[in-house]
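Hey, sorry to bother you again with one of my protein questions. A protein chain has come my way and I'm curious about its shape. It would help a lot if you went through both lines with me. I owe you a coffee for this, so here goes:
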Amino acid sequence: MLSSRQAHRNPKGSMATFDNRYSRFVAWLKVLLPLAALVLLSTMFLISRGIDPTRALTYAKVDLDNLARTQRITGPQFSGVTEDGSAMSFSAKSAQPDANDPLVFTVDDLNAELSLPDGGDIRISAGGAVIDGTRERLDLSGGVVFETSTDYQVTTPSMSVSTRQTWAESNGPVMAEGPAGRIEAGKVELKRQGDDNGTYLLVFKEGVKMVYRPKPAENE
């Protein structure tokens, strides 16, 4: 297990958790309403754009049909705070809302940053992801790279990340490189140790193998 630095206890922690479900609902509205506005504005700009009148109907019809079919939004950005106080922000190349659930988005080329209450930072990138506001989680796929501020880099095909609390777990084998050497395992999990002490751990499990490479002496 790899531990991040000990967090400082927040004296207002009990107040921060008050009415969290309402706060998360409001936070998702702040994401969804601007996205809906972008779709409408894209349609308005498309219709009002000055183009060759002889080609206007054909050009507009193709783009509007594509917009209506895919509702794809370019360069979306999302942010929020978990119940245990981690600041989460992520961006993507594009996002497409689910036809059956307005709180679900499929995104391409996701990049995320997680700032832990204990001062640690985590950076995550993935080829694609599903942002599920209903289940309050991200399902990453397409090759995931997970980097920590303690200089560990973890790679895995797919991973699930909670947007409610600071938690993440790979869905299969992982390979990690760090100061101590190379680690291979069936899974890795990021979780908080205990209930409220703010210490976060990277836990490798299921057939863990480690190749220890000690740091060379400074005079070498």
Observations:
- Residues 20-48 form the longest helix (29 residues).
- The chain has a mean pLDDT of 75.
